């Protein structure tokens, strides 16, 4: 089931992007006609987490609702623990009947291209038992959930209402927040993703519970960002050095994303 869903996500996203732009080399990672405006930022994407943070995250009880890019991040998590000589978190596919002790539970939620279905499914799984059994929970939308015809403000409002309700119902759970991932091309869709991500950052950047996946994806190893402009709108794009295709992460990108995720989990625990 895992690999079948992964293949469908790639086919769908690639079909949209190829129709919109000409593919570039991974080194360019920006669409033709867009003005590249790299800026140096203080990036922590490649730093840490410490072994203490990794152990703390491993001992947490976590539920993560996701789709295909989530698998990339989980693969990166396993590689990161192995590189540090530590046992990886005890992983469990599902949201009910979780084993005792530290656990990183995860499950596919909703349907790609239908972000509201993911928000509803995540809330349903929390209310069906996960909320009583974990201490950290979060969900991730996907790059295929946003395109030129999407309504990012409406999606954000639904997400915010849902998380506010869940936080009230389950005060013992730390709900994390994730920016939507990006693609190397398709500026029109990245502009829409940027609108959603700006709303997420504005609402949650000061909480200590923001996993800024889009920032990790668009920040090169040297700290500059992959930035473009389209129709007077600025957008960020996935750096080609982290990409296995237009939207999924290779080993390097997966490890960097997992570092950021684990730091936030450790902080929230």
Key attributes of the depicted protein:
269 residues, alpha/beta, Rossmann fold, 5-stranded parallel β-sheet, two-stranded parallel sheet, disordered N terminus
Protein model, in words:
The chain is an alpha/beta fold and 269 residues long. The chain has one domain (2-268): 3-Layer(aba) Sandwich (Rossmann fold). It has helices spanning 2-20, 51-58, 68-83, 115-127, 152-169, 187-204, 213-218, 251-268, and strands at residues 61-66, 91-93, 103-108, 136-139, 174-175, 177-178, 210-211, 227-230, 233-236. The strands form three sheets. A five-stranded parallel β-sheet has the order 2-3-1-4-5, with helices on both faces. Strand 8 and strand 9 form a beta hairpin. Helix 4 (115-127) packs parallel to helix 5 (152-169).
Q: Structural class per helix/strand content?
A: alpha/beta
Low-confidence stretches: 1-46
Order of strands across the main sheet: 2-3-1-4-5
Give average pLDDT, whole number. Answer: 87
Number of helices: 8
CA radius of gyration: 17 Å
Estimated helix fraction: 40-55%
Cα separation of the termini: 31 Å
Assembly state: single chain
What is the CATH topology? Rossmann fold
Q: What's the domain count?
A: 1
CATH top-level class: Alpha Beta
Number of strands: 9
């Amino acid at each position: 089931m895992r690999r079948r869903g992964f293949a469908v996500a790639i086919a769908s996203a690639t079909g949209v992007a190829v129709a919109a732009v000409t593919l570039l080399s991974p080194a360019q990672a920006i669409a033709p006609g867009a003005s590249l405006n790299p800026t140096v930022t203080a990036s922590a994407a490649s730093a840490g987490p410490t072994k203490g943070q990794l152990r703390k995250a491993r001992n947490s009880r976590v539920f993560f609702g996701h789709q295909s890019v989530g698998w990339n991040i989980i693969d990166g998590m396993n590689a990161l623990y192995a590189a540090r000589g530590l046992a990886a978190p005890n992983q469990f596919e599902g949201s009910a009947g979780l084993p005792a002790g530290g656990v990183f539970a995860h499950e596919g939620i909703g349907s790609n291209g239908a972000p509201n279905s993911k928000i509803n499914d995540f809330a349903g799984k929390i209310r069906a038992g996960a909320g009583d059994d974990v201490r950290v929970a979060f969900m991730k939308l996907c790059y295929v959930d946003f395109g030129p015809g999407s309504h990012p403000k409406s999606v954000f409002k639904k997400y915010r209402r849902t998380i506010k309700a869940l936080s009230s119902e389950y005060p013992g759970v730390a709900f994390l927040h994730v920016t939507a991932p990006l693609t190397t091309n398709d500026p029109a869709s990245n502009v829409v993703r940027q609108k959603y991500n700006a709303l997420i950052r504005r609402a949650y950047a000061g909480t200590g519970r923001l996993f800024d996946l889009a920032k990790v994806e668009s920040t090169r190893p040297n700290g500059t960002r992959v930035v473009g402009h389209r129709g007077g709108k600025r957008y960020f794009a996935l750096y080609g050095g982290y990409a296995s295709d237009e939207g999924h992460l290779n080993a390097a990108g997966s490890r960097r994303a997992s570092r950021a995720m684990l730091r936030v989990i450790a902080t929230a625990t």
